[in-house]
Amino acid sequence: MDATTTLKNHNLRVTKIRLAILDALENGHQAKPYAELQATLSDFNRTTLYRTLLALIEKGLIHKALEENGESYYARCGGCTSYAHTHDHIHFKCNDCGTVECLHLSNELGFTLPGVAIDSLEITAKGTCKICNL
Ligand SMILES: [Zn+2]
Ligand SMILES: [Zn+2]
Ligand SMILES: [Zn+2]
């Protein structure tokens, strides 16, 4: 879905910076580190960029895929809303090239714990990605 439609679907005003962030994360399943977003979007004020990222997370358009060594990785959401992030995918980090991806599994991750209501689940897997594995 293109960035403008995504913003409109979430009842958000279409602004340059929102479009720029969504476009930078367009490559569906690949998460990008904050430093890279900052470099790509260097036209924008850093504070504005960070605040906009937080706002987009709150509105269910993007999510933090991983936080490691002080670096945060962000990725686009699929069917999330401003009420809830409803992910059931895992985050995969390649130990060789450092790529972080959102991986959707063929089987749903079903966890049931007696007496516990799970709203969201965060799982990080590490290994070698398809490209490095060739
Ligand atoms: Zn989400
Ligand atoms: Zn790799
Ligand atoms: Zn993800």
Mean pLDDT figure: 91
Radius of gyration: 16 Å
Order of helices and strands: HHEHHEEEEE
Determine and state the CATH class.
Answer: Mainly Alpha
Number of strands: 6
What is the third-level CATH name, the topology?
Answer: Arc Repressor Mutant, subunit A
Shape: globular
In short:
By secondary structure, the chain is of the alpha+beta class. Helix content is 27%, strand content 22%.
Overview of the molecule:
This protein has 134 residues and is of the alpha+beta class. It has a single domain (3-127), classed as Winged helix-like DNA-binding domain superfamily/Winged helix DNA-binding domain (Arc Repressor Mutant, subunit A, Orthogonal Bundle). The protein is 27% helix and 22% strand. The chain has a 6-stranded mixed β-sheet. A hairpin with a 2-residue loop joins strand 2 and strand 3 (71-76). The radius of gyration is 16 Å and the shape is globular. It starts with a helix and ends in a 7-residue tail after the last strand. 19% of the residues are buried. The mean pLDDT is 91. The structure holds zinc ion (3 copies). One zinc ion is lined by residues 63, 65, 75, 89, 91, 102.
Topology summary:
Elements (H helix, E strand, L loop, with lengths): L2 H7 L6 H9 L5 E4 H7 L5 H13 L3 E7 L2 E6 L13 E5 L5 E4 L20 E4 L7
Parallel strand pairs: 4-6
Antiparallel strand pairs: 1-3, 1-5, 2-3, 4-5
